[in-house]
Sequence to fold (104 residues):
Amino acid sequence: MDEPDTVTEAIRALKADGYLADFEMIDGAIRWASRAKQCAVDAVVVEHLFRFEGQSDPGDEMIVFGLYDPATDTRGALASAFGSSADPEVLDHLVGLTTRYRPA
Fold:
C-alpha cells in the first residue's frame, strides 16, 4: 500500500484493501456496526498506521489505524485526532495501539 497524503486517502486505501468496518473508540473499547459489536483495545492487531500532522496547525494532527480483530475476523479503519486536540481518554488508548504497531 502506498503512503497516502491525506486521512481520506488513507481510509479509502484501507477500504480497498479489505478494511471494511468503521471502528470507533468508545469507553475504552473498539466498536463497530452501529455499536452492536465491540472488542477490547488490547485484543485488536494494528496492521497499518498512518499519522498526519497539520501543516499550519499542530492541532490538526490525525492518526488512522488499519485494525484486525482476530476473534471476529474483522478488519476496519479507526481515525482519530492525535496530539493536543485529542480527547485525553481516547489518547491513552491510541498511544497503546501505536506502541503495538510493528511495520512489516
